[in-house]
């Protein structure tokens, strides 16, 4: 390490200690902060609580400090909320006050300092982006325009799995094929495009760059530079890689998808609204001067991040639970067979006629919430919550997983039991009508993609269960459902091998 840099850093740390002590004394007098472990200068609570603030660790801390508590992560305040009442306050009653997003050094790179929609602060830019994205992505008209495509993609998954004889004996890592399906589902909407196979070079490149972006953004590796700004110079190498990945990725979106579509639009008449795909609408907004070219690319970036893996994780969890609960799988198959009749392949309109399928989806999203702490919220200004003062620019985490898995609120929550959504919880919907169950959040910053995610989940799980008996690989009685969490995701640690035994109709 450069000696001058080290000297500067040590001096900086010393100054930071003095300033932190002075600030904490001063703040202690002025603010009534939420309870929490005693912070030490500079590091705050970071060394005590560590990096991995996943939903389970945060619940352990809530047991100690209550439904609202504060952690000081270096210079950053982190407020964790673990009750339906306080979640309602954050997401609904004070939805404007807490409707911003925190970013950090890495997210600043990937979003061009909030030129996107998902990670931008609450305000004019967010409102405009959400409005511009609604018509091309988040309406029932979009579902009706693309559902045949999703049904086709699910049928192709079934066909490809049937073609692979090993799938029926030693099994196949189904996720790989489903990932291609999810890319196709979303790239049809965005660009009216699909990828032919898992080996398609463009798909391979895209998948690698998206994976790299997720890994870099979700890693805990850069926390030190984020929490303690004085250490940021040591992140230089990490941030350089982030910048390179971001540039290459946006260039790929631009060269291979946006420009291609523009070329096509110049040769064909796109007057027919019915033929337009999402990017045509977004480019219209750019032409009208509502957004710039960067915003267009960040919309593509956001959809790649927010839509594909989240839905894929949920499908993967659903399959794992159905394999590990053969009686539930059987019951679901029975519903599909009796309501739809043998041989009729499930379509989007059918999903509304299948209450047990809906319950399986809800139960999967409850027990295995893909974004268990929602996307972090933030208050731009000093605020009040639960009788405490919340300093401006605090990161607010809503422990949605705990809300949906608290034994004081749910009967045997650790049990995977879809029946609960047909019995004691029959009024609870995924759209957020009950603050105990928020897999997509609720309120201003809630997930607009719910309208697409639910039918895709229904069609995919439905087709798989209709066509195959899904089993663990030979010699295994259950799939390993160990969880893996990132900065804010919850997925399965090991992508399971699934035996898919074709059914004969
Ligand atoms: C099962 C699949 C999905 C789950 C579990 C999920 C969950 C979530 C959650 C929890 C949030 C944050 C809510 C909050 O902070 O209060 C969110 C935000 C978001 N989701 Fe989803 N999502 C899924 C699929 C999708 C899809 C398919 C799309 C797009 C096509 C999408 C687009 C977005 C966007 C754009 C936001 C940011 C909204 C904003 O900040 O205003 N999501 N999602």
From TrEMBL:
<keyword id="KW-0472">Membrane</keyword>
<dbReference type="Pfam" id="PF00067">
    <property type="entry name" value="p450"/>
</dbReference>
<dbReference type="GO" id="GO:0020037">
    <property type="term" value="F:heme binding"/>
</dbReference>
<dbReference type="GO" id="GO:0009808">
    <property type="term" value="P:lignin metabolic process"/>
</dbReference>
<keyword id="KW-1133">Transmembrane helix</keyword>
<comment type="pathway">
    <text>Phenylpropanoid metabolism; trans-4-coumarate biosynthesis; trans-4-coumarate from trans-cinnamate: step 1/1.</text>
</comment>
<dbReference type="InterPro" id="IPR036396">
    <property type="entry name" value="Cyt_P450_sf"/>
</dbReference>
<feature type="binding site" description="axial binding residue">
    <location>
        <position position="447"/>
    </location>
    <ligand>
        <name>heme</name>
    </ligand>
</feature>
<dbReference type="InterPro" id="IPR017972">
    <property type="entry name" value="Cyt_P450_CS"/>
</dbReference>
<dbReference type="InterPro" id="IPR002401">
    <property type="entry name" value="Cyt_P450_E_grp-I"/>
</dbReference>
<keyword id="KW-0503">Monooxygenase</keyword>
<dbReference type="GO" id="GO:0016710">
    <property type="term" value="F:trans-cinnamate 4-monooxygenase activity"/>
</dbReference>
<feature type="transmembrane region" description="Helical">
    <location>
        <begin position="6"/>
        <end position="23"/>
    </location>
</feature>
<keyword id="KW-0349">Heme</keyword>
<dbReference type="InterPro" id="IPR001128">
    <property type="entry name" value="Cyt_P450"/>
</dbReference>
<protein>
    <recommendedName>
        <fullName>Trans-cinnamate 4-monooxygenase</fullName>
        <ecNumber>1.14.14.91</ecNumber>
    </recommendedName>
</protein>
<comment type="function">
    <text>Catalyzes the first oxidative step of the phenylpropanoid pathway in higher plants by transforming trans-cinnamate into p-coumarate. The compounds formed by this pathway are essential components for lignification, pollination, and defense against ultraviolet light, predators and pathogens.</text>
</comment>
<keyword id="KW-0408">Iron</keyword>
<keyword id="KW-0560">Oxidoreductase</keyword>
<keyword id="KW-0812">Transmembrane</keyword>
<comment type="similarity">
    <text>Belongs to the cytochrome P450 family.</text>
</comment>
<dbReference type="GO" id="GO:0016020">
    <property type="term" value="C:membrane"/>
</dbReference>
<keyword id="KW-0479">Metal-binding</keyword>
<dbReference type="GO" id="GO:0005506">
    <property type="term" value="F:iron ion binding"/>
</dbReference>
